[in-house]
Design a protein that fits this description.
278 residues, Jelly Rolls
């Protein structure tokens, strides 16, 4: 079921990692492969990160065999963001239209999810974050215009951006998953600036809507042991609770953020001044 397993590194080990090792431990470079469901199991808060690019037919997420349960959602919830063309999600027989930048929430106890594209020439690209859940909640679709927008940053700092909350207590409830999309403003390149730490939650990122030649320099690591990952369109990474996270792009980009941990308090974080980074 899983194409690979990520264990996440200890912050004490990061200084000795090569670029290749850093990418092996934290990046997911090929989540979107035509007509395949690509799932990566991480031991960082047991988040599953996946991608589905349905072209010739639909793909189902239902079996829990690899998880030791009958069904995938027996003890899990998930957020599924469409980063491509229009598509459809069928949840236990109910049909949900999924335009670009819509996010679907599948609660614990969901029987099966099936993902389709409307147009094979412009397929949907379903990005998946799934985490353990202790409470069953109903499925929901959140459209781009239904998300809660928050404008952050300033043009003078080249970090103006709009963060949209989708799976969030103020918009659509979940057990422990938070999920949303952030887009940089024209002329701005930085995200999550200044960086921060949230010791009680991990995070996963998927960068998208990037030109083929564009790259995001994603910075991570303990504040005194900074490292970077070079990220292309529709590539994802995991960010452990001990790591800062911020990025700068060579062109326009968006990213999906997904978090889980001890709480759903989005503002439960500790800012790290840029002057303190090494």
């Amino acid at each position: 079921m899983f194409i690979e397993t990520k264990y996440g590194g200890s912050p004490r080990d990061i200084p000795g990692y090569t670029n290749e090792r850093l990418r092996e431990e934290f990046m997911m470079e090929r989540l979107f492969v035509e007509d395949r469901l690509q799932l990566v199991y991480t031991h960082v808060d047991r988040m599953i990160v996946g991608g589905c690019l349905p072209v010739k037919g639909g793909h189902e997420l239902a079996s829990g065999e690899a998880l030791g349960t009958d069904g995938f959602f027996d003890a899990r919830e998930a957020g599924i963001a469409n980063l491509g063309g229009a598509g459809v999600i069928e949840a236990d027989g109910e049909r949900f239209e999924m335009p670009h930048r819509a996010i679907f929430y599948a609660g614990r106890g969901t029987g099966s999810i099936r993902m389709h594209s409307d147009d094979p020439a412009n397929p949907a690209a379903f990005y998946i974050n799934s985490v353990p859940a202790g409470e069953p909640l109903p499925c929901a679709r959140i459209l781009h215009e239904e998300a809660k927008p928050v404008v952050i940053g300033e043009e003078a700092g080249a970090n103006k951006r709009t963060l949209r909350m989708y799976i969030h207590p103020e918009v659509s409830p979940s057990c422990l998953l938070l999920m949303g999309i952030t887009e940089t403003a024209p002329g701005s390149v930085w995200n999550t600036q200044p960086p921060h730490l949230h010791e009680r939650r991990m995070e996963a990122y998927c960068y998208f809507n990037m030109a083929p030649e564009t790259r995001v320099m994603h910075f991570m690591g303990a504040p005194a042991q900074m490292r970077h990952l070079v990220v292309a369109d529709r590539q994802a990474l995991i960010s452990p609770a001990w790591s800062i996270h911020m990025g700068a792009g060579t062109g326009p980009y968006c990213f999906v953020w997904g978090m889980t941990g001890e709480n759903k308090a989005y503002n439960d974080f500790t800012p790290v001044p840029v002057r303190d980074l090494v």
